[in-house]
Amino acid sequence: MFPKVVQVIPMENYSVYVYFEDGKIVCYDMTQMIEKEAFRPVKDITVFKEACTVMNDTLAWDIGGGGGGSRDNTKCLDFDPDTLYELPMAVEKIA
Questions:
Q1: What is the 3-class SS of 4-45, one letter each residue?
Q2: Average pLDDT along the chain
Q3: Could you tell me the maximum CA-CA distance found in the chain, to the nearest angstrom?
Q4: Dihedral sign computed on CA atoms, order 3, 57, 38, 18
Q5: Which of 14, 22, 68, 75 has the fewest CB within 10 Å, making it most exposed?
Q6: What pLDDT shows up at residue 8?
């Protein structure tokens, strides 16, 4: 079974609450990730929060600004769902 993300809630401190389909809820601290070259487009906290979404059943940032249901999978930053499920950057595990 592949873990599926059903909801994400980005926070002011570059953390993201990720809700998985199986009921697992994890708050990830993304401060180290945004320092990597690939994630620089979301270093601005406004972009980080506004572009954060669920795309292809995983945590993603729509840096193409697709909004309104016209998201472009080729212009996004995302995590492999299996990798995300096991990521050690958890601030807290809620469920």
A1: CEEEEEECCCCEEEEEECCCCEEEEECCCHHHCHHHHHHCCH
A2: 85
A3: 35
A4: negative
A5: 68
A6: 97
Average pLDDT, integer, range 19-44: 91
Residue 72, CB-side half-sphere exposure with 13 Å CA sphere:
6
| CA 94 to the chain's CA centroid | 17
| pLDDT higher than 60, residue 42 | yes
Predicted confidence band at 66 (pLDDT cuts at 50, 70, 90)? Answer: low
Query: Distances in Å between the alpha carbon of 52 and those of 1, 22, 71?
Result: 24, 21, 12
Whole-prediction pTM value? 0.83
